[in-house]
Amino acid sequence: MQIINGAGAWTRPIAGGANDWVEQLKVPDLSVGTYCIPAGGVDTQSPHTEDEIYVVTAGRARITTPGGDEEVGPGAVIFVPAGEEHRFTDITEDLALLVVFGPAYGSRGAAGEGDHVRDA
């Protein structure tokens, strides 16, 4: 057993950073992390090579996929299959997301593919 302290908690991105991604646990079959985007921020992620579950722990936004847009807020659980284009938009309150990847983040692709945050 392992307790993952701080997973899903809002953290302001470091100075000069647009968003904040921290991976808190990684084992071969899954990984867990926290993704934070400030209100008014822009989500610049690209599709991932792993299946993904988001749990909204704080904030409000829309998630946009080829299948449509949905408003999300605290308690929303979102499944995004590997390879699906997706992005959080219209972020009206600081957004904190607990993120679970299966298998572990980055394990199916070459380094740099499916980056959660791309620096400008």
UniProtKB/TrEMBL annotation:
SUPFAM superfamilies: RmlC-like cupins. It holds the Pfam family Cupin_2. Residues 35-101 form the Cupin type-2 domain. It comes from the Bacteria. This is Cupin type-2 domain-containing protein.
